[in-house]
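Hi V.,

You were right to ask for the full record rather than a summary. Here it is.
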Amino acid sequence: MERGMKVLVVIAALVCVSVFGHAAAQGEAGSNAGSCTLFVAASMTDVAEEMAVEFRQRTGMHVFINPASSGTLARQIEQGAECDVFVSASKKWVEYLHEKNVSADVSVFARNRLVLITPLNEADRKEPTGSDAVEYIRRLLSGGFTMLAMGDPGHVPAGVYGKSALENIGVYQQVADRIMPTQDVRTALNLVQLGEADYGIVYLTDAMSSRQVRIAAVFPPYSHGPIEYYCVRIKDTGSEAQRLFEYMNSEVAHDLLIRKGFEPAVRF
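Predicted structure:
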């Protein structure tokens, strides 16, 4: 009987070693899977977070996300900030990194639209498009409002597009002194959500992500340059960066872009 008990104890011990050894091996494999740092334009924050989860499920790799305006991120990268892949909402900052000899692979990643938003408590109307949108925007912005929030045209792509659109429809000069320039497009969205700004100019996907604003009008594409996002693999990064870059240009990632309201640059 005593001998039998000893055998059972030995077997139990071996089972524990096997189970915990397997768990430890799995943990070690997970820790050795590596990680990446992804710098993303602020308007791409939500979709980047979902891509990071999907990528980790597929590869075991953790993705650290740093969202900000494209100009701020590009300057950080040029100054030596650790970054593997960069998503820019402006070609200008992609070219900036190319001139600094920092970028490696580049792809056109996605496209977006520009919209004028108001707080949700405004009268609910169907947003006009095309020539009707231009006249409607002119009427709205000729009224007695206090603040129009939009990204700083000096370094925020959404602000650059916004200023161009306002100039091309002939209202920039009359609203210039009421523009609140923000550090990124999400800050402009937040000001409208809080009711601190009467109007805001943001991307369509930003407006779609909020339940506290409504789209007053969609700016026609001819009123500003093409809104394109670029995916950039940074020079002298490892295989992890290459895997993330390839994933972000895959059919799986592009399906997620569509669900979030972006237009993928490549159709599979």
